[in-house]
Amino acid sequence: MSVVCADSCGWLLDSCAHIDEGFQRCVSYSDGLEKPKYFKCCFKREYFNTLKPHVQIQQNTDILNTANLSNAEHAKPDLQTRKKRKRKQRDLNTGELDAHIYHGKVRSVVLEGSRALLEAGRQCGYLTEALTAPPSESVLSHECRLAALCDMAKQLPLMDESVEAPVQTLNRDGLDPSLDLFSYITENPSDCAYEVTLMKEKYLLPPRSQFLLSDITRIHPLVNSGDKFDLIVLDPPWENKSVKRSNRYSALPSSQLKRLPVPALAAPECLVVTWVTNRAKHLRFIKEELYPNWAVEVLAEWLWVKVTRSGEFVFPLDSPHKKPYEVLVLGRYRSTTDHTVRSSAAEDLPEQRLLISVPSVLHSHKPSLSAVLKPYISRKPRCLELFARSLQCDWTSWGNEVIKFQHSSYFTRERAEESSKTSETQLTQ
Q: Residue 422: pLDDT above 50?
C-alpha cells in the first residue's frame, strides 16, 4: 500500500511501494522468445534514499555574528565593501513578500500536522535511519530523448481527426514497431505489466494503462477518444530560474496552459488537481485565471511535505530560499450544460491536508495521488494525468516524456513462476 498511515491532518505515503504494486507480474515476448518470459519488477530503492536534509540548519548563529562584528572593528572595510553589504540587505520584492506571507499562513499547519504522522511512521518502522542497503554514491538516470522525438514527430502528417477511436493496443507479441506512438493512444489492456521495445529502448508498461506521447500541439487524439475523466491531475513545467539554469526540460508559459482542453476532457464534477511551485505568481494564476478559464471552482489547497528517510524536513521549514513543501490546488469542474446531481459516492473535499513522503531524487517524479483522492471521486473513476513522466494502473497519461520513468533501467528484476493458463488466456485476448 502507498499509504503508510493517516490521520485527520493527512497521509504518510510510500511512493516506491505504490509503483511496485503494478509490477508484481510482468511479461515479455522480446529477444525472439516463442514463449512469454514472466518476472517481477521493483523500482530501484536508491531513487528514494534521501538520508539527510539538503541544507543543514546553522548552529550558534549569534556567536558567529558576534565574532564577525569583533573582526570588523579591527579590519575597517573600504567604502565599496560597505556598499556591497548594504545592497544585500534589500527589501523583499513583491513575489518574495507574497511567498513570505503565504509561508506564515501554512507554517503551523506543516509543523503541527506532520508531527503525529512522522511519529507514527517511526513507530511502525517505515521512517528510520537504518537502511537495508547503503545508498549509491551516484545515482545514474536514463538519458531521456522523448521530448526531442516529439519535436521530430511534428514533421509527420497529422492523424485524420475523423478517426473515431484513436487507440492502439498491445497484442500478444507486444507492440508492432510500425505503429505510430505520437498520433495514437497506446494501451496495455492486460492485467500484467508488459515489457516492450519502443524506439529501440525497453519500457515497462503497467496493467490497464494508456498513454499518448506528444506535446500540446498534438493532444487532439486524447480529445477525439471521447473519454470523459472523473479526475485530472496536472504537473505543468512551470517557468522559473532553476529550470532555465539547469535546462532539464522546456518550460511552458502560463498563458499556454489555458489552451489545454480540460473542459473537453472533464466529466461533470471532475476533480482537477494541479501541482504548483512555491511562487505566489503561479498560485495566483491558477486560482484567478486558469481554473476560472476552465470553469473549475477552487475548493482546496493541500501541501506535499518532503522528508528524509529519518523523518526530517528536506529543507529547513523557515528557509528563505527553498521550502520543504509544494502546493496542490484542487477544484471541481462545474459544467455549464450539465445539471445532474453530484454523485453521493464522493465525499466533501477537505480544504487542507498534508501529503508527507520521502521524495524521489529524480526531477519532477511526484508521488501518486490515487490512494488519497479515492474518497473524493466516483467509485470506478476514469483518471488522467497531464504532463506525466510515468504511467499508473487504470490511468491515462499524456506528455512529451510520458514514459520517461517506465524505462527498464529504473527497475530491478526478479524471477517469477510460470503463469497459470488463466493468465496466459488474458494476455492472448
A: no
